[in-house]
Amino acid sequence: MRVLLVLVFTLISFSSYSQGETEAEKFWNTLVKHQGKAYEGKLVSPESDSRFEGRLVMHVRSATDQEIKIPFFVGEDRSRTWVLTKVEGLIKLKHDHRHEDGSEDKITQYGGLASSTGFANMQIFTADQETSDLIPYAAGNVWWITVDETSYTYNLRRVGSDTYFSVEFDLTNPIETPKAPWGWVD
Fold first, then answer.
1. pLDDT tens-place values along the chain, 186 residues long
2. Domain ranges, residue 72
3. Helices (H), 57-151
């Protein structure tokens, strides 16, 4: 009888634990709350970069249970979209780059899978094999995204180099939603 009670109590405890949200799910759900909203951002590091001149805008354009697409616009350049997908309880980040006609850039779909469920306010992604094959110098890339009630940051550090990129968006002040990214239909 005692063994049966221990077994039942263990199963109840495990069941309660397994029903709780993982850190990755908390992160995901925070982002989903912003679906349809756009926010203005600023370059944090480097302080200036000619490739990122103009108004910086992120738009949580679509969010489902399995995929979140966040276009990132730099001025009139609507070529970039961050694509987050769920893979066996973890989150994968890919970068979708398009030309103005909607065709894929030759450097696209790079990124990586988080190695753990991470934190509720931060997910870390290391370059995957596809990235290493596509962009050999990016094999040491580490990206991380942070999100809380007030801000969203996208960050890149290239291990073994001085490359560090960070852009921050103010989530307290939604702006008018922009046009569709290149390759999308409104």
1. 443 333 333 333 343 344 689 999 999 999 999 999 999 999 999 888 888 888 999 999 999 999 999 999 999 999 999 999 999 999 999 999 999 999 999 999 999 999 999 999 999 999 999 999 999 999 999 999 999 999 999 999 999 988 899 999 999 999 999 999 999 876
2. 21-170
3. 129-134
Say if residues 128 and 113 touch (Cβ distance below 8 Å).
yes
Judge whether 15 lies within some domain: no
Q: Please give the structure tokens belonging to residue 150.
A: 């007030």
In the chain, the number of structural domains is: 1
* 186 belongs to a structural domain: no
Q: How far apart are CA 77 and CA 54, in angstroms?
A: 9
pTM, full prediction? 0.88
Can you give the CATH number for the domain in which 73 is found?
2.40.128
